[in-house]
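FW: tagging you since you asked about this chain on Friday. Here's the raw sequence from the shared folder, copied in full. Didn't touch anything.
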Amino acid sequence: MKDLKERTIRGGLARVCAQAANFLIRGGSLMILARLLSPRDFGLVGMVTAFTGVLNLLKDFGLSSAAVQRTKVTDEQISTLFWINILVGALLGLLTLAAAPLIASFYHEPRLFAVTAVLAAGFVFNAAGVQHSALLQRQMRFTAISVIAVVSLIAGTAVAIAGAKAGYGYWALAAMTVVMPLTASIAAWLTAGWVPGMPKRRTGIRSMLRFGGMVSLNGIIAYVAYNIDKVLIGRFWGSGVLGIYGRAYQLTNIPTDNLNSTVGEVAFSALSRLQDDPKRLRSYFLKGYSLVLSMTLPLTLACVIFAKDVVYVLLGPKWMSAVVIFRFLAPTIMVFALINPMGWLLYSLGLVRRSLNIALVFSPTIIAGYFVGLPYGPKGVAFAYSAVMVLWVIPFIAWCVRGTAVSFWDVLQTLMRPLACGILAGGLAFVVGAACEQSLAPLPRLVLESSVLLIIFFGLLLFVGGQKTLYLNLVRGLWKSSVTKSAAISLDLSKT
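HL: got it, structure written out here
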């Protein structure tokens, strides 16, 4: 692909813009819903999604990743994969429906039966749009993907807020969970303009199914590790406590989800096209890694240093018991920024078995940490989870990059500059926040603290940390891409 660099930069910009919109919408909806609903409402839905979320990982059976990772794929293969996705989605929906009485019995909460039954429909809605989204990703049409993500989020958020205002309580959150995948699938069909054919045998999808199966199994193991904490807290500490823990977890998860789904999609598509060119793959990966760290580190520092103001502004005064939990969980934002890009590298190179082996060692360690912290309540679980994640970072990265075009030293060099800038910027921002703690209300104080942190961090990163050239090259690449695209449009118009 001759214009891979331009497509990657343009797609990255589109996804970053979508990330910003996604962050604002999710943050705004959280502020509104936290004031309209109770911790128990969030906890009830969280009890169900902790179970159904693991099944949600099977909605595409990893076949979207398989379709993107392959250098060539035929229409017959995509059509066959589409119908496999529909079958898997229907089976998962039926399985969720069958599990509804078991979930209600496990938590001793009869209301969960109906909630689980409603959420079961989301699996079919998700499955219907998987291959259409994969086609858009293969074509690197990330602007379209970004618009679809924002539109579906707006639709789900609007339904949830309307339901909460009307007094439907936890049903507003359940409706949001179903409306979002339905809207996304409809939009993907309309945008891709592709209609699947009938499934066929002997289309050469066996290797894709094997790849997708490994991706799905890897995702399931990781999901259990990252979500069994909510199951344990809900079971032993109740829905109210889970609601508080879940909102603190969500606050830390918003930037992680955004970065992984936005930058990750672009990076995975680009790296998959470069799997036979180690030198360019290394260069693309390290630049993307540097950008993710630069965007994540200030968020991590803000959440740790200004946790009280963040919770007060975003959730409101009735959620202040979540402050300590939020502060304990905040380091995981940075941890995920360090380890998630390793998935782009391993999957793009087809090293899914190594990723699975890592997950089989990594996940039990995290789960063991939960059990150690569980007797001390949500604070103990949050601290144990964060501590294990931090201790695992170095061996995790070393295992992932072993034998690839990217070395462990490459990763350390990429990390050191933004980390040093972040420590200095965080220290200065903390001093500013402490100085104005008594004179400013939480919202203006948070704005001031965050502004100081961001200005100092990026100032140091660009002019002291030597990252100015990287960002200038990105701007030049984006400008070149825009000029080329405009020239192509003008040429097409002149022919008409």
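FW: The first helix runs from residue 4 to 36.
HL: agreed, and Confidence is low (pLDDT under 50) at residues 481-496.
FW: great, closing this out.
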